[in-house]
Amino acid sequence: MYSKNAWKKYKNYDEIFAFNEDYKRFLSNGKNERLVVKESVELAEKAGFKNIDTFTSLKSGDKVYVLNRNKNILLFVIGKESLTKGINILGAHIDSPRLDIKQNPLYENSDFALLDTHYYGGIKKYQWVTIPLALIGVVVKKDGTTVEINIGDDKNDPVLGISDLLIHLSSDQLQKKAASVIDGEKLDVTVGSIPLSDEEKQPVKANILKLLKEKYDIEEEDFLSCEIEVVPAGESRDYGLDRSMVAGYGHDDRVCAFTSLRAVLDLNEVNRTTCCYLVDKEEVGSIGATGAQSRFFENALAKLISLSEDNYSDLKLRECLTNSFMLSSDVSAGVDPLFLEVNELKNSAYLGRGIVFNKYTGSRGKGGCNDAMPEFIAKLRNILDKENINYQTAEIGKVDQGGGGTIAYILGNLDMTVIDAGVAVLNMHSPMEIVSKVDVYEAYLAYKTFLKEMK
Ligand code: MN
Ligand code: MN
């Protein structure tokens, strides 16, 4: 069904609400890409998936996952058809905008200890001050042991935060443009204020180091090999008096990651091999070994073909890529009633109207977009309409207003047929993003239908 409110289709909302409880748990536990991968492995193993390293050959019905540096996961259900006929892929990113701890982060100033950060991805810096924040991530020590850090989410934990100037002294600050109201270098996290008694120099910092030594057995120099992120503290919550929405950190793009993952986990017998690809680094350009531009995806597919067919050849891999279909499962900008002016309302995504297809993203003259084939869109309309699934089409805002990108073009560059399809989000890239529960559920149904029916 095209561009209709999806709530109206349902007599009761039990299934929608129950599915979203699972999603809220996933979102609350998965506040960075490592944690999302960890959770995905747990869910996958419960559903009968096994690590590819445990297979010596693959046959129809096998369920397998492949990990990349604990930051990407690929999951496959092997189909009845040869892989060279192509596979059906759902690809979402699992990194979200946040603040990363610098390599030499800890300092003392004015009787406070602080951690210096460098923001990751596109943020409005002013949204990250005076809210409760948590620290998550890993510290890898010289001997190779990995210490997991997770402070601020448990209700018995303290939270951290970034200060902002009191209104009484803000007359200069309030004249600044929003982009510079809070400087990138001022996004430093307050972590303590008790001085270590017999320490002369930087006693508050010394006390924090003592705590870190006691609790985690780490030294200041261990920050050199850490990956610690500052993220909003607390769990995702129902939003709205009618509980129709979910408020949380990281819907972009974990809402599409979760629905894509569940779609692959919940389908057993398939004709074409199905795939869910959860990938890192989209918010900074999809580059590096864990971004969508990495060879990891092709390498994993090569391995899959070599375990499934008698004679592996590069041609078989190329044929598989060319014959594959992909939904680049990424979020879209939902219409905000308080900011209608940035949208062209006939071509905008509305919360509650189902999964959103972006034929193209990009900015200015569609710069940097993957412009999906109308032949592909027609097939999608056909299979979704047969299953009575709600969908809509959209652009990201008015033509000259800005824009955005996804991983769609990267897989398109591998000669695959790709379109962007995901959930509409309000407050995108803020510490509290909003999605509609019915869209989450409709996206899941749409992804499942695509995996089963697209050929
Ligand atoms: Mn995204
Ligand atoms: Mn994003």
CATH superfamily of the largest domain: Zn peptidases
Instruction: Give unreliable regions as ranges.
Output: none
**Which strands sit side by side, in order, in the main sheet?**
1-2-3-13-4-14-20-16-18
- Major beta sheet, specifics? 9 strands, mixed
CATH hierarchy, class of the largest domain: Alpha Beta
CATH topology of the largest domain: Aminopeptidase
Q: How does this structure look, described?
A:
This protein has 455 residues and is an alpha/beta fold. It folds into 2 domains: 296 residues, Zn peptidases (Aminopeptidase, 3-Layer(aba) Sandwich), CATH 3.40.630.10; 135 residues, Aminopeptidase i, Domain 2. The strands form 5 sheets. The protein has a 9-stranded mixed β-sheet, with helices on both faces. It has a 6-stranded antiparallel β-sheet with strand order 8-7-10-5-6-9, with helices on one face. Helix 1 packs across helix 10, helix 2 packs parallel to helix 5 and helix 5 crosses helix 10. The longest helix is centred in the last third of the chain and has 17 residues. Bound molecules: manganese (II) ion (MN) (2 copies).
